[in-house]
Amino acid sequence: MTVFDLPILDAHTHLAGSESGESAEGMLKTLDACGVDKAFVFAPLLDVRSWELTDQDFGDIRTHNDYCAHICSAEPERLLGFCVLNPSPSLTNGSIPRAVDLMNEEANRAYHELGLRGAKMVPTNWYPNDHDVLRLYQVIADLHMYVVFHSGIFMDGRESSYCRPSYFEGVHSVKGFKGQIAHLSWPWVDEAIASLLMETNILGQEPENWDLIADISFGSPDDWQLDAVQKAIDTLSPEMLAYGSDIFWPVSAEEYREKYLQPQLGLFETAVTLGHVASEGSGKRADMRRKIFHDNVWRHYQAIVRDPQRPCRSEKEFSTTRASKGHDK
Question: Does domain 9-304 fall into CATH 3.20.20.140?
Answer without folding.
Answer: yes
